[in-house]
Amino acid sequence: MGEQVVAYFWEREDAEQVAGQLDAVVRRDRFQGEDDDEDHPWMVLVPGGADLAVVEPLVTQYDGWLDAGDAGAPPAVEPPPLPTAPKRLKKG
Predict the structure, then answer these.
(1) Strand 5-9's sheet: what is its strand order?
(2) Closest C-alpha among 45, 47, 49, 42 to residue 63
């Protein structure tokens, strides 16, 4: 596994427990548009060399979730071309 994985937790204690077992870093993260500081999740930056077979059970045990970024995302598909003129609904 070469890319960094981020694990999210709602409780700081849970994030610190997992980070201690994985030798990872704990930070506070914000969701887009979230104003209340108390609602931000805690994120654990898991090192790139960590084994997912170890990380996933720990995250599940502490009610967290993983975000591997774009690692598993399919390649972007180019959208179809846009029309160059308005579409006529009535024949005239």
Answers:
(1) 25-28, 42-46, 5-9, 65-67
(2) 42
> Does residue 82 come out as left (phi exceeding 0), alpha (psi in the -120 to 50 range) or beta?
beta
Tokens matching residue 85: 């003129």
Identify the sign of the CA torsion 50, 52, 57, 60: positive
The helix/strand/coil state of 36 is coil
Mean pLDDT by 10 residues, the chain (92 residues): 78 92 84 62 85 89 80 69 85 68
Q: Supply the pLDDT for residue 47.
A: 83
Q: Which residues contact 35 (CB under 8 A, 6 or more apart)?
A: none
